[in-house]
TrEMBL record:
The chain crosses the membrane at residues 20-39, 187-220, 232-251, 272-297, 303-330, 369-388, 529-548, 555-576, 596-617, 638-664, 670-689. It is found in: Cell membrane. One of its GO terms (cellular component) is plasma membrane. Residues 46-67, 710-774 are annotated as: Disordered. The keyword Endoplasmic reticulum does not apply. It comes from the Bacteria. This is RND transporter. Residues 65-368, 400-703 form the Membrane transport protein MMPL domain. Residues 752-765 have a biased composition (Low complexity). The keyword Transmembrane applies.
């Protein structure tokens, strides 16, 4: 007999040594978490994450080695938003100065400043230490501000700054993710209970997925010392880990259970699941990893970090499915189907073929061209809004006004525009030219003072580095960061700065800041998008050709997944670029999609959609390898895989939809985009478009080599066979001999039993197990 695939050999060892396999997996997860915690995270710095001119400005400023002190702004206003009582305001400001000066965390406190409109007083505070972890040290300052507010009726005391803003936003986001976890985990368990009807079977995929997330977080922390890590990586690992971890376990567990019910012994069922679903998991994981690798071509540190985290968690999920899952199934034995949930368990044991899926497939199999035109047309209509997609970086305007610190930022910007939207001008020149650079920047400030695009409530200060080589100055604008006015002020400033320093020899200048970063980041992604998309399409096409040895299958996979992604982008634009869904999803439309989302969404969707495509087409190919006619193979493959794909899709949609409830608009858009794409893929692509396309193609599905050229042949084990083209039954014994020569497993129940001597061939009864012998 030919050598078994690696997935089978690994599963066989794990099933034979379950405690060793389980112990090794627990040790692996523990070591990953320990090492990750021991070495700590190497976070992406501002200069590493910048692109374009804003990135260059950040690097120039960083080279000046300016001392970065966390600054806080204590804002005193009337509680009703009206005119400020000057006497009461001055008294409150004096108490703020007294309390803040007495704090050990405070280095200095400035004099109170009255706003130009007379409605606010500002007390500037400088904290000790650097900006790192300022949010953890700002607590006493916030308590002091609250005490002042409590002692002065009719006044509001807000604090906005390096530490307080980070603390307010991180607390809100942390609460959001805690709520998301509390919803998503029970929801996933509930869905799996419906799928399996047994508590243990439902719990295994969830526990395994959580262990994969833990191991991946530890490994990504180690990887951050090679590729610096963004703070969003852990969230993406959780999202991807729960999705693929549950999916891969579900594929494997459902197939093992199917084979046991068909009469296979427990070990045989595990081996068949390893050879079929295990192989599919490897292929699916490879396609996801290939897709995520495309993010490296974005040539941006944040995307490289997200790609690394996603690739790690997918690889760990594949490893878990191939190694520890067979051990768990072998150790649990038939206890995996206990304790049973009475009503749900009976539903999973319904005899015979489901009536739902054949009915849904009927249009695609009987009228393939009509079904293809109608279903593709519907998806194209959904995709149409994507043609009007607008991109922009998220800013303070996109934050929920339910967050207290965001409302405080609005009041600060209204009273002191120069503290809100700020452009940073950075100039680097030889130290001997320092006086010339200062003179050039002073002339630039005089020019901005006469222009309404810039703020005039305070005089900007020119900062000089210790070696006198780098000079920076912050120039404020009264416009919100995402407004046309802010963008116009940036364009004007970028035209004036080169003119101002043009006469300084060897001077290098750039304009940065939040507005500039958003503009440059969006432009950079638009330029890199074709390269990333091309890379993902090309490598996915090559991967599919190598797996299925069919150009037709590879090309159809690419086209169908592009169609699914386009439709999800259309839904995303329709929901978030308009206002009709604001009340439903609790957001304020900015008229645009977050600039980083389309690229990241495309890569993730392409990888996850290929999971389902590979799984379904593999089952169709299994039936075709047995000799099934095209329509019968499609019908058998999809009806056999529909339950698993639907269950996995419902789990994914549930997990992703929870992200649509978070406060941050980028996470709302990510959750809605992913949920919409998976739902469309499972409900339309796999039920109508794919079967209709494959039925229309007929034998061309396996072009150019044909199904025999794909490395298959007849069934792998004695039992069900299909009628030969001439209409004569193929003897079961001959099918068995051919299958043993070819070494392929045949899943049970794909076809009617063969007839031997005019009577149906008897199938093994459940509970009486035997191993097939050559």
């Amino acid at each position: 007999m030919p050598k078994k695939p690696a997935t089978v050999r690994i599963a066989r060892w794990s099933a034979a040594h379950p405690w060793s396999a389980i112990g090794l997996w627990i040790a692996f997860v523990a070591v990953c978490l320990f090492l990750g915690g021991a070495v700590g995270t190497n976070a992406i710095s501002d200069e590493e994450s910048g692109v374009g001119e804003s990135g260059r400005a950040g690097r120039i400023a960083h080279s000046g080695d300016f001392p970065e002190k966390p600054e806080e702004n204590v804002l005193i206003t009337a509680e009703d938003g009206g005119e400020l009582d000057r006497t009461a305001g001055q008294a409150a400001a004096a108490e703020v100065v007294r309390r803040m000066t007495a704090l050990a965390e405070v280095e200095s406190v400035g004099d109170p400043v009255l706003s130009p409109n007379g409605k606010a007083l500002l007390v500037p505070v400088t904290m000790k230490g650097d900006t790192e972890n300022a949010d953890r040290r700002v607590g006493p300052l916030l308590e002091a501000g609250t005490a002042v507010e409590d002692g002065h009726e009719g006044l509001r005391v807000d604090e906005v700054g390096t530490g307080s803003t980070a603390k307010g936003l991180s607390e809100t986001l942390g609460e959001d993710f805690e709520r998301a976890e509390l919803i998503s985990l029970p929801l996933t368990l509930l869905i799996l209970l419906v799928v399996f009807g047994a508590i243990t079977a439902a719990g295994v995929p969830v526990v395994l997925a959580l262990s994969c997330v833990g191991a991946a977080i530890g490994l990504s922390t180690l990887a951050s010392h090679v590729l610096p890590e963004t703070s969003a990586v852990s969230n993406v690992i959780l999202l991807m880990g729960m999705a693929v971890g549950v999916d891969y376990s579900l594929f494997y567990l459902k197939r093992e259970r199917e084979e046991r019910r068909a009469g296979k012994s427990h070990v045989d069922a595990i081996e068949i699941a390893a050879e079929t679903s295990g192989h599919t998991v490897v292929v699916s994981g490879t396609t996801v990893i290939v897709s995520m690798a495309g993010l490296y071509l974005a040539d941006e540190a944040t995307f490289a970090s997200l790609a690394t985290g996603s690739i790690i968690v997918v690889a760990v999920a594949v490893l878990a499915s191939l190694t520890v899952l067979p051990a768990l199934l072998a150790k649990l034995g038939r206890w995996v189907d206990k304790p049973k949930v009475p009503v749900l368990w009976r539903l999973t044991l319904r005899p015979g073929e489901s009536r739902v899926w054949p009915a849904l497939l009927h249009p695609a199999l009987s009228r393939p061209l009509t079904t293809l035109v109608v279903s593709v047309g519907a998806l194209l209509l959904l995709a149409a809004p994507a043609l009007g997609m607008k991109l922009k970086q998220p800013g303070s305007d996109d934050l929920s006004r339910d967050i207290p610190v965001v409302r405080a930022m609005d009041r600060l910007t209204e009273a002191f525009p120069s503290k809100g939207t700020v452009h940073q001008v950075a100039v680097r020149a030889p130290a001997g030219r320092a006086e010339e650079v200062k003179a050039a920047l002073e002339a630039l400030l005089e020019r901005t003072a006469d222009d309404g695009l810039f703020a005039h409530d305070s005089t900007p200060t020119i900062e000089e580095s210790a070696d006198r080589r780098v000079h920076t100055v912050d120039i404020g604008t009264p416009h919100r960061p995402e407004s046309d006015g802010a963008r116009e002020s940036l364009d004007v400033l970028r035209g004036w700065v080169p003119q101002a320093v043009n006469d300084v020899p060897d001077a290098e200048s750039a304009v940065g800041g939040k507005v500039a970063q958003g503009v440059d980041f969006t432009g950079h992604l638009e330029a890199r998008l074709p390269w990333v998309v091309g890379f993902v399409l090309l490598l996915t096409f090559v991967t599919m050709v190598l797996i299925f040895r069919s150009l037709a299958v590879a090309l159809s996979a690419i086209l169908l997944n592009l169609l699914s992604a386009a439709a999800s982008f259309g839904v995303l634009v329709a929901v978030f670029q308009h206002t009709w869904a604001e009340g439903l999803l609790a957001f304020t439309s900015s008229g645009a999609v977050v600039s980083w989302l389309p690229l990241f969404l495309f890569v993730v969707l392409f990888g996850l959609s290929m999971d389902y495509h590979v799984f379904v087409v593999s089952r169709i190919r299994e039936a075709a390898l047995e000799g099934a006619p095209v329509r019968a193979a499609i019908r058998a493959g999809i009806t056999r895989s529909a339950g698993v794909v639907t269950s996995a899709a419902i789990v994914m949609v549930g997990v992703f939809a929870v992200f649509g409830t978070l406060s941050m608009v980028e996470f709302k858009q990510l959750g809605v985009g992913l949920a919409a794409a998976i739902l469309l893929d499972a409900a339309i692509i796999r039920v109508y478009v794919l079967p209709a396309l494959m039925t229309a193609l007929g034998r061309w599905n396996w072009w150019p080599g044909g199904i025999s050229g794909s490395g298959g042949g007849a069934a792998a084990q004695p039992g069900p066979t299909w009628l030969l083209p001439e209409g004569r039954p193929q003897p079961a014994r001959l099918a068995s001999q051919q299958s043993h020569r070819q070494g392929a497993h045949q899943p049970a129940g794909l076809a009617p039993p063969a007839r031997e001597g005019g009577r149906p061939q008897q199938q093994p009864r459940p509970g009486r197990h035997r191993r097939d012998t050559p």
